[in-house]
Every structure is written in C-alpha cells, then in structure tokens.
Write a structure and sequence with these properties.
heterodimer, A: 248 residues, mainly beta, Protocatechuate 3,4-Dioxygenase, subunit A, 9-stranded mixed β-sheet, 2 helices, 27% strand, globular, B: 203 residues, 8-stranded mixed β-sheet, 11 strands, 26% strand
Chain lengths: 248, 203
C-alpha cells in the first residue's frame, strides 16, 4: 500500500488520558470510597457503539432554555443574584469546534441553595430560579447562556467543607465515548484550593482548565458581567493506516 | 522545539447529588423544557422485539444508589444507530437509541423501555454480540463509568464476542449479562465495587 496521496481517514477516539483525569478512589471526597470500582478498567479501541451518538436538533430548544434568569421566573420577574453571561466553545482535542453538541447546565441559586427535595441548606430558595438550562453549540462549537452567579455552600464531607461557586455541565459530542460531566469554577474564588471535589483533579493545570475567567470584552455594560469557559471533548485519530491491506 | 498543539480533554468532575436538576429537571419537580430528555426511546411503532431493562446500581456496601443517572445508547433491531455518523444505512425512524433514567426516587431502580439491539461489527470486521452501551454518573463517581449490557440468552454470539472473550477474568463476564426475569423483561444490576463488581470499560 502506498502512502502517497492517500487521504487521511477518521480513526477511533484518542484514548482517554487517565493520568490527567481524576482517579475513581479519592478518599478526601468521602462518597468516592464506596462508589469507586477497584478493578482495572477494560481497555479496548472504540467501536461503532462509542463512535456514534444521539442527535439533538436546535428545534427542540425553547427561547429561554439558555436563560436561567428568566426560564423559571414568573412573568415580569427575574432570578435574584449577580447577572452573568457564561460563554465559550466546545472543542475536541484536535482543536476543532464541536457543532451541534448538547450542553446542559445546573447550579445553586445566589444563596448557594439548590431546588431539590434532598437539599437541606438553610439558605432561601428563590421562587424565580429553577437552576437548570440547556443549549446546543453552533457551527463553530460556541455556546452561551445567561444566569446568576451561584453562591458557595457547605456540604457534609469533612466537618466544615464548602464548595466553591460552580456550575455543573453535561456534554454530548458526536460519539458516546465523548460523554462528559464536569464543573466550572470562577477565577479568584478562595474556596478553589480548599475543595475536596476539585482536588480530585491532579494538577494546577487541570484546576485551571476548569476555572472560567472574567471576560470584560463580552460583559454587557450596566447589565451583566461575562465569564469565558471553553470545554474540550475527546478527539478522533486521523490515520492513513486504518484499513491495512494484506501484507502491510 | 515545536509544540504538539493538541488540547487536553476537560477534566471530569462528579455529577454530584443534584444531577437530576440538570438532566431530568421535571423528575425533580422543576417543570421546564416541556419534559425531560431520554424518557422515551420510541416515538412510534418500532421494529424488532420490544424489551424492558431494569436494574439497580449498588455501592460497595450493597446499598442502592438513589442519586445516580444512567444513560444507555444502542442500535435498533437491525443493528443500525440513529446517529448522524451512521453510514451503513438508515435506522428505524421511530427509535431514538438513547435513554436516560434517574432511577426510582425511593428504590433507585432504573427502567428502560427499548428494543433488543441488533448486532454491530467490531472495527476488524468480526461481529460483536448484541449489546447496549451504558454510562453511569452519580455523587461520588469522579468520572462517568462506561459499561455494556449484553444478553445472557445470546450464548452463541457472546461466546465469540471480541470484547467478552478478551476479559482475562472470565468469571466476571456474568457481570455484563442482562438476565431474563419475565417475558420481555431483563435485569441488569450494576455493582460499583465488591465481589460482583461490574466490568467497567476504558474506551
């Protein structure tokens, strides 16, 4: 087989870098102790089952799906808290934008309280804040939504653990192997170095990868501050060798 | 030196105790978006054998998880994926292939109403046994866990499956098999830890 003038083919997904991703067992985050698999994961190359993914069309989105200030508010009212815009791009490891990616997000209200039956923190619920939103990335992988700056809150782990302000993200790409859930933190939050959940990532570089920066260029004067947060999904190999011919 | 300008995958973080607010808000009582995604895998009459898959996720002490979210992804009865990058044909238009379950609020049991998947080839051309991809997230799980649901009643196909036959510890294969417990109903429990720990995949 000649390599000359052979167009590259799209191969399987680049293996996940387990030395970069958090381990399953992280004793400082106590719940992980009994919820972490002990056996080695079974590694194998991605197959069609992982290289395909459900399709979500822009048509399913409502006008306010990506506006947490209004999407649970009574008509004429809005959620309480510092108004912010969160925006960025969903990229793959090759640096390409991932279009058509479903991005779901959820968060506590400005007082650090979630709208959930099992949530017991004494901070007040905001009757105009549901705490969830969703969008689908554009052709270049870009997304944006409007919300309020979430509050930090205490949680039962150690005797005095507090979560930094954060927003949860759930991401679909073009293959089920790319499925990812993560959290976004905010530049300058003093709880960042203290958090037992954030410390499951293994380096300052990894913490930085989850920390959004204040983006004055996208801030709307007299209205909302903006934070920029890019996310990266696994990429696929480009290969000339995917279909080997006999004898190679 | 030049630099390899690849990006690194975003680090995963736990879905936390309130993943249902973000992914199945209506299940938690937040009425929004006109309903939750993934609650139904059928949008009309589907081809093939309709089945129910039920199961529970257990932690290392045998306690059921009541705050997990389970997603499944599978081909239709003919082995075709309802995916934009399916190139082998067109999947059943009434089948989404994707389901999402928050589990029962009290028992934690998840349920999927789906179809028995058709077989799909491995990259080298060998046929894989019929299977469903499953993904589990929850509080205490730092990175989503991938596994596969195979079927105990597909003995011949399972015996030559490229993945099942690759397992060093063959006594763990049963952790990947859904078992028929009634007509059209299969059980697939997931054990995060312990002697029956489910085989989880790095794919």
């Amino acid at each position: 087989m000649s390599l000359v003038n052979t167009p590259p083919r799209t191969g399987g997904f680049i293996p996940r870098d387990r030395s970069w991703q958090p381990d399953a067992l992280t004793p400082q985050y106590k719940t992980s102790v009994r919820r972490s698999p002990q056996s080695a994961l079974l590694s194998f190359p991605s197959t069609l089952s992982e290289e395909t993914s459900p399709v979500f069309g822009h048509a399913m989105l409502g006008e306010l799906d990506n506006d947490l200030i209004l999407n649970y508010a009574k008509p004429g009212e809005s959620a309480i808290g510092p108004r912010i815009i969160v925006h960025g791009r969903v990229l793959d490891e090759n640096g390409r934008g991932v279009p058509g990616a479903l991005v779901e997000f959820w968060q506590a209200n400005a007082g650090g309280r979630y709208r959930h039956k099992k949530e017991s923190y004494q901070a007040a619920l905001d009757p105009n804040f549901g705490g969830c939103g969703r969008t689908i990335t554009g052709e270049d992988g870009s997304y944006e939504f409007r919300t309020i700056y979430p509050g930090p809150y205490p949680w039962p782990n150690g005797m005095n653990d507090w979560r930094p302000a954060h927003i949860h993200f759930s991401l679909f790409g073009h293959g089920f192997a790319q499925r990812l859930i993560t959290q976004m933190y905010f530049e300058g939050d003093p709880h960042i170095p203290l958090c037992p959940i954030l410390s499951t990532v293994k380096s300052q570089e990894a913490i930085d990868a989850l920390t959004a920066l204040l983006d004055m260029n996208r801030t709307v004067p007299m209205d909302s501050r903006a934070f920029k947060f890019d996310m990266v999904l696994r990429g696929r190999r480009q290969t000339y060798f995917e279909n080997r011919t006999e004898g190679l | 030196m030049q630099r390899l300008d690849y990006l690194r995958e975003s680090p995963s973080q736990t879905a936390g105790p309130y993943v249902h607010i973000g992914c199945t808000p209506n299940f938690t009582g937040i009425e929004i978006f006109g309903g939750d995604l993934g609650t139904s895998m059928k949008t009309g009459p589907v081809q093939g054998e309709e089945i129910t898959i039920r199961g529970t996720v257990f932690d290392g002490t045998g306690t059921p998880l009541r705050d997990a979210m389970i997603e499944i992804w599978q081909p239709d009865a003919a082995g075709l994926f309802p995916s934009a990058n399916e190139t082998r044909g067109t999947a059943d238009p009434n089948f989404t292939g994707w389901g999402r379950s928050p589990g029962d609020m009290v028992t934690g049991e998840f349920t999927f109403e789906t179809v028995k998947p058709g077989a799909v080839p491995y990259p080298d051309g060998r046929m894989q046994a019929p299977h469903i991809t499953a993904w589990i997230v929850a509080r205490g799980i730092n990175i989503g866990l991938h596994t596969r649901i195979y079927f105990a009643d597909e003995e011949a196909a399972n015996a030559t499956d490229p993945i099942l036959t690759r397992l060093e510890h063959q006594n763990r294969v049963p952790t990947l098999l859904a078992r028929k417990e009634a007509d059209g109903v299969y059980r697939f429990d997931i054990h995060l830890q312990g002697p029956n720990e489910t085989v989880f995949f790095d794919i």
